[in-house]
Records
---
Amino acid sequence: MKPIGSVHDIPFGEGRTFSVDGRMIAVFRLRDGSIRALDAVCPHKGGPLADGQIDLKQVVCPLHLNAWDLATGCSLSGQKPVASYPVRIDDDLLFLEL
Amino acid sequence: MRQRLVVIGNGMAGARTVEEILARGGEFDITMFGDEPYGNYNRIMLSNVLAGIEDESGIFLNDLSWYAENGIRLHAGVRIDRIDRYAKMVYASDGTATGYDKLVIATGSSAFVPPIKGAHVPGRGYHQGVFVFRTLDDTRAMIRYAKEHERAVVIGGGLLGLEAARGLQNHLGHVTLVHAAGHLMNTQLNAKAGKTLQTTIEQKLGIEVVVDGMTTEILGKNAVTGVKLAGGRVIDCDVVVVAAGIRPNSAVAADSGLVVERGIVVDDQMRAVDEPDIYVVGECAQHRDQVYGLVAPLWEQAKVLADHVTGVDRSAAYHGSQVATKLKVAGVDVASMGQQGAEHADDELIEFAEPAKGIYKNVVVRDGRLVGATLVGDAGKAAVLIKAFEKGSELPENRAALLFDLGGPVAEESVADMPDEEQVCNCNGVSKGGICAAVAGGCKTVGGVMDATRAGKGCGTCKPLVQRIVEWAAGGTIEEDPAASYYVPGVPMPKPELMHAIRLHQLKSVSSVFATLGGDEDAKSKMGLASLLKMMWGEEYVDERDARFINDRVHANIQRDGTFSVVPQMKGGVTTPAQLKRIAEVAERHGVPMVKLTGGQRIDLLGIPKEKLPEIWADLDMPSGYAYAKSFRTVKTCVGSDYCRFGVGDSTALGIALEERYQGIEGPGKMKLAVTGCPRNCAEAYVKDLGVVAIDGGKWEIYVGGAAGAHVRKGDLLATVGSADEVMVLTGRFLQYYRENGNWLERTYAWVPRVGIEHLKKVLVDDAEGLAAGLDERMTASVGAYRDPWKERTEPATPGQFRTSLPLIVLPQVPVRA
């Protein structure tokens, strides 16, 4: 697992994009404090998933409102899946495994 | 200890009621008694069993395992003889006694057999060869007997009699239908419709029909040999089926001291008179003088009963049913609802008959509403008519459109005729086939299909067509989508209830609304709630940034490539050379890929990366034009009386004043305004959410609910006023009323016709409900709370507010235009 930044880089209930080994990863901080990580690019039309609205289950892409499961990366609206990544917090640092 | 619920009756009403109770999480210890020795089956389908279309096993709704799985004790084949209301016990034919806390009586009906000589054999029940048509056992016996005989007479030309006649044809050679009244199905149909049906039945099906035929005797010594009619005519036959109607099974209730008239009398909660613990449902119940013999009212009754007995909604009330039916009677399409013909002098009866084709149609209109309709032989318009009848909706000016699919643009496209590959949703590219596949895949609500396919989720104009396709594809099994009335999908309440609950619990943040009212947080509900809370609480609103859509987080409109557009405010579309220079300089300095004039008379800088937004705002040093929010957008104006030769009012000044006052006001949808200086309408005020038109004599007309987007609509005239000040006040009042009452994302072009312009005039102009002062006051408070969001640029509101979310891979970028 690699350190990618501080948990305080992400406000509760939002997402931010991190560059990890040349890949763009959208990392979300849920309102219950837990963290999820998905590929940053919406497979539908390339929208920035980190700009989407989230709840404890899904992220909704801001461009065409397609939704993905935050835990699995599976689409909830009939699109292709996105990759999801293991991620954890240690002493306020975010660690991610590609 | 769990309460004991005893249900007498295991037919469609009893079992459905138990299902509804279980669906509400009702915690009862349930015991059911059924007279018939089976699980619960669909009685309506017995006609199909008789006709050989359906197998017996196909008509069971709940087999015995369902009872076991739900912990229900079923006593099938056990009849209840007596209810002791004081001891709260029921006594069964097998000698057992069972106590209850709550009792449901759902005993249904039994076949009515008129006193005809020879129908019964003393001590042996029905004469051999005489049948009724009510239960599965009746049906089995009838089939068995009919197979070995040749000629049948069916007594009764109602729905059941016709079905019996048609079914019997399957098993023997000759069927005669004898009906006592002057025409078939006289309860539902008028004489012309009944005659049309008769002709079809006789000519197409070969069933002999005798009307005005009173059966006086069933002949035959050991077995039936014929029936004798009042005029002396004898019809030879060896099978007789009596289908002369049904009577509620209320004897046990009456013997036990309940109030029984035609059925067991119930109140609006489906409780027997003066019996707080005894409910009655289905064909045995008499509610407000009505006893229903159809299935739709039964479903409604079961819901109310379940709401009440479980305590889920103690205020649930049944108000009676508008009975509308569409069925195939003996293979002929028949739909009927309400009146058979004109009953008042003022009723309009519109009628069409084409006897050669077996078609008869009529509609009865009173005060512009549909109060009755009949369709025989062609029920194509049934769905439309049933909807108009049940909802009391407005009818087309051309009444013929009620009976026929007329040509021209107003006609609804026939869904059945559309090819599968035809595109329905032009925004998201969804075909008819795609919608049907979603229905086949298990989606049974319009909302569910829209979520699954994204059909109707773009501009929304195709929604009515999507709805019709779903209804068609689901073949009438469409489920009412309760979520359709919710303000947002994640909190199960319509807007007025939601606002009430928010005030009651003092909920000032989106997360507190979910925690208190909604259960789980829902991403798709956050934006609507944020808008509502901000409108309701103003300065007290607790702003959680994650509740905002990205546009509202960064005060700019996200574009297809993830960049943003920046539109500075340009009140009334009036600008200055200095302003233009500054915009030009900013665009050059930052290499803005595209500069464009908007439809709202402003200048749009497109292709701005998120991280550059604060810098661009600082360089522009102009207020936000709000071209990204569900809010007051712009006021488009013409040059008005200042320069125009034709202008009769200073539209520019009024437009600027309106924008100055109402800038940035959030609402359920965008609010686009215009002020035009004369009725030539250069500023397109007739098609705005609110449009003001100067007319000669120093007056202003105010139009509301106009649109010129995917939906085009001319606004309705709200008022004509004598001064610009009055325009300012009425505009604020209208916008505030819309903010408080419009559904989320419901634009004024939908909301104004929904509430009605007459209502708006009454409330906003005449102040008939005394709401005006409050609306004005709340709008003034919102106006006072205005802050230019583009000032939020030196200190980000959240960490990384303007950090890029753009991926590093190359996306379809908007090309730079030189």
---
Amino acid sequence: MIDKTFKSCEEAVACVPDGATIMLGGFGDPGLPGRLLEALRQKGTKNLAIIHNGAGAGDWALGGLIKDGRIRKLTASFPCNPGAIAFQELYLKGQVELELVPQGTLAERIRAAGAGLGGFFTPTAAGTELAKGKESRVIDGREYVFEKPLRADFAFIRAHRGDRLGNLAFRKAMRNFNMVMATAAEMTIAEVDKLVPVGGIDPEDVHTPGIFVDRVVHIARHPKLVEITGPK
Amino acid sequence: MKLTRDGIAYRVACDLPNGSYVNLGIGIPTIVSSYLTPDKEILFHSENGILGMGPVAAPGTEDVDLVNAGKEFVTMLPGGAFFDHSLSFSMIRGGHLTHSILGALEVAGNGDLANWRTPGEKVPGVGGAMDLAFGVKNVWVTMTHVTNKGKPKILKACTLPLTGPRCVKRIYTDLALIEVTPEGLLLREFAPGLDPAAVQAQTEAPLRIASDCSAMNVPENIKGVPLAA
């Protein structure tokens, strides 16, 4: 029998070493695996490289890890989001490295890694300062920039429903980066609102097949928003 | 007279054709959806994986799993769809969206757009702006015609780092509607009470005047909201 479920976030992240590169799904609160991050924060793991769209908010989850000085590098498209105060402070002190990537390029670099590709040419950013130092090529009269695949040691993601095989289904705007990130890490750990029996997700409705998912943790969803997302 | 922020959004809404697939940026573009007339069916896209997005959720009806790219709680309209970031940016980069309405810091006479690095910013951030600028067929800019210090924002050449070269097709400001053509900027409309010379005086890049150039047809207010003042 395959059983990818873990009883707690603490157990699920116990193997994450210092220095790990972690992809972190979510866009705003939907799909953000906040409880996994909090478990990592409690564990004291440090020197992390994080790949995420933003730079966290407040002092919870990613914001908390950054505030505690656990991050050495952030790869992001929008690290200037309101609330990313902890990141801004560290960045201005020169204590954290930033790799800025256009949002669509970030998603596609992750997709390329997960799909076994060696990179791709995109028109996005050609001729701008974000293309500096990158190979470019004119294809059918248009300039494209070469972008390399982006992979990680771990992907932390959040879905609505999951089963013990790792099959996942998302709800509304939860999918965002979670689906591509699940494909691009050595180990993908998912926190889910609901753990359902095998067969509980109709095959027509599986968004991320369990082949991409290594660990599943059930985090009961609290009816109150603040309990789901942490303090604002 | 000048158009208000709502007035600029109203003028854009008048030009969006039925059947458009539109991404609205933060700021004035967000207001555009408030001024669409019911005879047009238009689907709004949000970078984080939504097509067919409805208005912001009324207080008390927010869904924790449904936010737009500005992280506001929003609603869905019948016929909408959810998808992941990869597909969302295929819609953008692949040229499937028909319109991107963006704010701008500077636009040049050749359509160069600068809107991602502000002077004096502490941490840079680009988000989806470059993908939109490079991928969407019709990039329309909404902005005030000049800075709050009265300096022109429509320039011969941008001074700030570019979001995208030669991508802007139209500029909607509080003073004018300007089209970007291969021959340069073409003034199509000016705010009520102005004339082409008054618009040119606040525009660094040279303007050609369209043969049918006229005053904008924008009501002074709609339901008590001032559109021109």
